[in-house]
Design brief:
Blueprint: E1 3-7, H1 10-20, H2 23-28, H3 36-45, E2 53-60, E3 63-71, E4 81-87, H4 97-113, E5 117-123, H5 127-135, E6 139-146, E7 149-157
Helix pairs in contact: 1-3, 4-5
Length: 158
């Protein structure tokens, strides 16, 4: 299976919002946007010259299966950015797609934004996300409980 990263558009942002806004996905990845309009505003903000977030679509054999993005982009702060990934097509789970998408995305964003450190959060029981991060050389820095949910914070250092 060939994994590539594609360009996000208003159309893909809308698709992502609809497909990721399900109980199954929300159980593994909280969604910031509560409405489609908010999701589209968030997408439009990524197009501004001073944007602090950037995202790509994830394609598996040319099929749109998820998104990957970084946010909190700031070359001086540590971490320099946070990263998140979601495969919303559940038929494509556990096939190594997110791991490869993360690898490709890191290769793109590190030089593009001159990043040295990248952080990522995941729920402690989300073993698939933990594997994606660890296979991409993220190291667990902290485990904590927030709002009754156990979570882990991972850091990647160039």
């Amino acid at each position: 299976m060939k994994i590539t990263l594609g360009t996000r558009t208003a159309e893909t942002a809308a698709v992502y919002f609809r497909k990721a806004n399900t109980p199954l996905i929300r159980r593994t990845l909280p969604q910031k946007a509560k409405t489609l309009e908010e999701a589209l505003r968030d997408y439009e903000a990524t197009l501004l010259p001073d944007a602090t977030s950037y995202g790509r679509t994830i394609l598996a054999d040319e099929i749109y299966v998820g998104d990957i993005w970084c946010y909190g982009l700031h070359p001086v702060n540590e971490p320099n950015a946070m990263v998140s990934c979601c495969i919303f097509e559940t038929d494509y789970w556990k096939k190594g797609i997110a791991t490869e998408a993360m690898r490709l995305f890191l290769l793109e964003i590190i030089p593009k934004y001159d990043l040295c450190t990248i952080g990522a959060f995941t729920y402690s029981d989300n073993i698939s996300s933990i594997r994606v991060l660890e296979k991409n050389h993220f190291i667990m820095a902290e485990e904590f409980v927030e709002a009754g949910v156990s979570s882990k914070y991972y850091v990647f250092q160039k």
